[in-house]
Amino acid sequence: MRGPLFVPDSRSNSRRWTVIASALLCCGLGLVVIYTRRNAFFSPLAVVVVAAIGLAAVLLQLRYYNREHSKPVRAPVWLNIVGVLFALTALLSDFVGLSGPAAELMALGAVGSFAISSAMILHAFRKRRTASPEQ
Q1: How far is Cα 84 from Cα 8, in angstroms, rounded to an integer?
Q2: Could you give the CA distance from residue 77 to residue 42 in angstroms, rounded to a whole number?
Q3: Integer Cα distance of 32 and 35 in angstroms
Q4: In the Cβ-directed half-sphere of 24, how many Cα atoms lie within 13 Å?
Q5: Are the C-beta atoms of residues 111 and 44 closer than 8 Å to each other?
Q6: Smallest Cα–Cα separation from 36: which of 25, 47, 26?
Q7: pTM score, two decimals?
């Protein structure tokens, strides 16, 4: 007995890949947390790495979202570039000659840029979902 629950749908296939990609990113984040010593989490670099993994998850979700919809959502590229520049400055703070607090501010700027970019993308998802219900 095959009912409407067993009909393959492109939306369910796409969701499957979204779930698989999200699971892989969660595993990556879990490995970072498990195999990193406790003292390393006091480093600004560790915070930037975790924020970058979160941003990668949102950008991957954006890619799958844009495949399914005719009106794509755009990521704020300028904000991501600013975040990457902050992250690189925090990473290379010893070579640049920045003090400890300045490196922490650069890491905070990177995390803030990534968080704002992710929030803007997720807000666009919600806005489009409530504006045009496709179900």
Answers
A1: 40
A2: 29
A3: 6
A4: 10
A5: no
A6: 47
A7: 0.67
